[in-house]
Amino acid sequence: MITILGIDHVVLRCRDLPRMLAFYRDVLGCPVEADQGGLVQLRAGRSMLDLVEAGSGPAGRNVDHVCLRVSPFDGEALVRHLRAHGLRPGEVVAHRLGADGPGPSLYVDDPEGNTLELKGP
User: Fold this and answer.
1) Which residues are catalytic?
2) Residue 53 and residue 55: Cα distance in Å, rounded?
């Protein structure tokens, strides 16, 4: 069983990163937490909003992925659970940055090809 605590972060692909940054930072008031040149991480309440300079992805999509915070996070059990439902999860990575700091996560696509990241503490 997977318990979703909420949305950890959303990653948007941006054709015009400075314009998108100005909107989210200056208009909506999301403060910059990190700027890694081509990737800007903004605080959106308890969650993060990542802006990545990448343009649109497959089929013109500009959402790269949505990250859901799960608890507890047991990578091996998650992989088994997802595979039992016919999904092909990616590898568990021990250290990815999220709204609550670094922690383990894995990627999996939903039935329509949207990428989800399942992230632990």
Assistant:
1) 117
2) 6
